[in-house]
Amino acid sequence: MGHVAGELGLSLLWLWLLLCSWGCLGSAELRAPPEKIAIIGAGIGGTSSAYYLRQKFGKDVKIDLFERKEVGGRLATLTVEGQEYEAGGSVIHPLNLHMKRFVKDLGLSTVQASGGLLGVYDGQTLVFEESSWFIMNMIKLVWRYGFQSLRMHMWVEDVLDKFMRIYRYQSHDYAFSSVEKLLHAVGGDDFLGLLNRTLHETLQKAGFSEKFLNEMIAPVMRVNYGQSTDINAFVGAVSLTAADSGLWAVEGGNKLVCSRLLQASKSNLISGSVMYIEKTRTKQTGNPTKMYEVVYQSGSETHSDFYDIVLVATPLNQKMSNITFLNFDPPIEEFHQYYQHIVTTLVKGELNSTVFSSRAKDQFGLSTVLTTDSSDLFINNVGIVSSVREKDSPQPSTDGTYVWKTFSPEVLTKQQIFKLFLSYDYAVKKSWLAYPHYKPPEKCPSIILHDRLYYLNGIEFAASAMEMSAIAAHNAALLAYHRWNGNADMIDQDGLYEKLKTEL
Ligand SMILES: Cc1cc2nc3c(=O)[nH]c(=O)nc-3n(C[C@H](O)[C@H](O)[C@H](O)COP(=O)(O)OP(=O)(O)OC[C@H]3O[C@@H](n4cnc5c(N)ncnc54)[C@H](O)[C@@H]3O)c2cc1C
Ligand SMILES: *[C@@H]1O[C@H](CO)[C@@H](O)[C@H](O)[C@H]1NC(C)=O
Ligand SMILES: *[C@@H]1O[C@H](CO)[C@@H](O)[C@H](O)[C@H]1NC(C)=O
Ligand SMILES: *[C@@H]1O[C@H](CO)[C@@H](O)[C@H](O)[C@H]1NC(C)=O
């Protein structure tokens, strides 16, 4: 009898072990974390990926972050007389929740984006001029455009409202395998349709007038994306949110977010330029999990290392990252996507206001001039800026002059600077391949390039902004994590909005 009871006990134990292993298979904890992850690019996309990957995969995974220039990428400053000014990505919207969160969690502070009065120049005259009296502005706007600016505000609000759903999905750990699926999950077909149409077409259909589009909307697209209203309607809406109040920047420079994220993620910064990513022939390396070899140049030497997971966080084209993919089947081709060339110039001097207005110099109260498409000027905009340390509105230097920032399609010649300024003592510039040249219908490049090889910057073809890179980074980290652990139920889920609405 005792023997039979012993046998029964033993088989129950087996049964229990068996059931447990089944049960555990369904949960996320079974598979050991990856050993090594590579991230290419230490801009906001790469550094926030490092941060989110560390959160998901835990403390033991080794994360290498490759950067060939400076940490920050398109977040960078230029120095004028010892003060730093934002030269790339500069303003952040109050509802950009990831950026807001980073600043709070990383112990950084914020500064308010410079205010001041704005005018719009059409090549002949200022077609719109803000006044310091709020009521007066409303009257001017209504007088010239009826209630279109109010309607415009509501249109933008609606897009933003829907887009904000992404934060809830991400806080519940849901990931998407393509930018289109992500956008569909937040706003359905209507939202995805925004990528297929120009802003112009979309707003025209919604009843906005040509005059309003030319004088109010195009100038905003020109300053934010160096393009006009023929960009896709989604990036158009993102651009219009920059006309909201409460815009901010990081005290000391937006790029500080990147260096702090890098520190907080405890990843290893490698100064080098990645040349190749090669899929290893698994049999030869003997290590079946380390799928990818990253070959990079550091100084004059070429090195390489093996990784389980690779994230590419820089635009994949020859001019910008020049990375070649070897040994992939099907091959990963180069992405032939054109980025807009924009030059940032900072000038410390006195603006020649008669370029824009016949009014006397001391009656020209504007601190920002935007331009229409017809303006035919060599700049897209010009405006007074504060340094990254100024908490309030910009202060003139002791000689009464301000630092002005302009964006232009080409490098300004000395003659051009003298056309805009009565005098100047200092000018510095930085050239960018700044953001995609938008051409709807837009097709966003894939996020999953291969089994465990991910690409973040496809999201820029929906819209390029710091927050968009952070959202792509969070998504890629979640996607890499769920795919590593086989959690198919956390990827590309339908009906998330309804599902999470009841879950508070
Ligand atoms: C002039 C300008 C104004 C802007 N204004 C705003 C704004 O006001 N608000 C806003 O939200 N956004 C703005 N943006 C957009 C915003 O700056 C970008 O969307 C964002 O910074 C992109 O970040 P990223 O990390 O995806 O790419 P990047 O910042 O470009 O980072 C990629 C990094 O990868 C590195 N790299 C590339 N190839 C290799 C390689 N082979 N090996 C190693 N390293 C490599 C690069 O050196 C770079 O540092 C602006 C951009 C510009 C240029
Ligand atoms: C957008 O256009 C593409 C073709 O360019 C088409 O396949 C897709 O269905 C369109 N999507 C929407 C939501 O209209
Ligand atoms: C791209 O990289 C290849 C080698 O990896 C090099 O020969 C070529 O000059 C590079 N091109 C650019 C535009 O940097
Ligand atoms: C200022 O600009 C106006 C208009 O372009 C020009 O006529 C004038 O000569 C400029 N003034 C100076 C001092 O350069």
From TrEMBL:
The prosthetic group or cofactor this protein requires is: FAD
Tell me where in this chain the Prenylcysteine lyase domain is found: 128-493
Give the chief site where it resides.
other
Which GO terms of the cellular component aspect does the record hold?
lysosome; very-low-density lipoprotein particle
Listed A to Z, the keywords are: FAD, Flavoprotein, Glycoprotein, Lysosome, Oxidoreductase, Signal
The biological process GO terms on file are: prenylated protein catabolic process; prenylcysteine catabolic process
Catalysis performed (reactions): [(2E,6E,10E)-geranylgeranyl]-L-cysteine + O2 + H2O = (2E,6E,10E)-geranylgeranial + L-cysteine + H2O2; an S-polyprenyl-L-cysteine + O2 + H2O = a polyprenal + L-cysteine + H2O2; S-(2E,6E)-farnesyl-L-cysteine + O2 + H2O = (2E,6E)-farnesal + L-cysteine + H2O2
Documented EC number(s): 1.8.3.5
Its function?
Answer: Prenylcysteine oxidase that cleaves the thioether bond of prenyl-L-cysteines, such as farnesylcysteine and geranylgeranylcysteine. Only active against free prenylcysteines and not prenylcysteine residues within prenylated proteins or peptides. Involved in the final step in the degradation of prenylated proteins, by degrading prenylcysteines after the protein has been degraded.
Q: Which family does it belong to?
A: Belongs to the prenylcysteine oxidase family.
Q: What is this protein called?
A: Prenylcysteine oxidase 1
Give the organism the record lists: Ictidomys tridecemlineatus (Thirteen-lined ground squirrel)
